[in-house]
Amino acid sequence: MRNQALKILSDLVSFPSFVGMENPKSEFLVSQYLEKLFLANFLNFKLKKIKFEGKYRANLLFQNSKHIRILFACHMDTVPPSSNKMFKIKRDGDRVLGLGTKDMKGGIVSTILALKQIKDIPGIGVLFYGDEETSFKGILNITKKSKVLFSDKISLIVSPESRFNLGIGARGLTVLKLSIQGKKAHSARPHMGIDAVKLFYVLANNVEEFINDRKSDLGKSSLNIAHIHGGILSADGKDITYLAGTVPDHLIADISIRNAQVKLTGQQILKLFISEGRNLKLKVQGKIVEDYPARYTPKIVVNKVFKAIKASGFDVEISDPGLGGFNDMTILGKKIDSPVVNFGPYGEGNHSKDEWVSLKSILDTSKVFEKLVIEFCNK
Description:
The protein is 33% helix and 25% strand. It has helices at 2-14, 28-41, 101-117, 137-144, 146-149, 196-211, 266-279, 299-311, 329-336, 359-377; strands spanning 46-53, 57-63, 70-75, 90-92, 95-97, 124-129, 156-159, 169-170, 172-181, 222-233, 240-241, 250-259, 283-292, 295-296, 340-342, 347-348, 356-358. Strand 1 (46-53) and strand 2 (57-63) form a beta hairpin.
């Protein structure tokens, strides 16, 4: 099993699967490899190939029965490499270094190894999808077609990437583009104006405090000011300039909110900015660029997952959802009303030249996946 795991992992890492102009085929080589591997080793699985952009990009959905009870959802893409050396794995004891080893090609290997040990248990689905690291185009494509692809509610969706701990929740992600209008005044008489730049920071702080005024199992929401441009709005409304002696009356901002409130939407957050801006005598306008929900896995499902983990002979902890990024499986889980957990082999260094995954943990994770299949597919 160890040599088999290394071979598959080495193959997966060797294929450039990042999205960008320097790699026009994106995840194609990896998807081609996985398609051939599945068709050769898992004869009871049928393939649905779902194209989503251009002639190369496609999601692969394998299932061994009409109704999927458990779905292993694995993204195929990585971030761009800092050097071509990252396409070749390197051993350092139990550590295997290489681009995507931890995020999430190690998890793909665990999934494949688990399926090799499972015999004649229906209800398994495996989704290999693209674009997780950039624009979520792969999973948005699957979500759009979910009514056709998934005839029944899936009992559990597993995203196989963690630090051999259990992720049972994820904060949402909302991205807003805001326009803030104040009032010009001479800097010698600032009380006669409304400083859009100064008051924007007050506005952002007030909204963040309001969001965090309610308790959440997902920790606290966080607001990130990604980009601002402030000054004096030109007469035609097209440009922002500045004068040292004039109070700035306009600011545009791009912000992102890691939302810890399951029931809070991007539209509600935008309304908060508008109403709080009104209290500060600012005119706030904006649009939602991205809006993805927060999620929290029901306790009854978590208990079943822990039962399977215990049957595998391991003890794991629940990861802190307040420290994690957004998981795009939340989009699909929310759409089809299916619970999602994150569980994958231990490793560190996501998105860096030192990214690594534990080979032992890949094998241990595969054992957990076997028990998860038994727990969720056998009635």
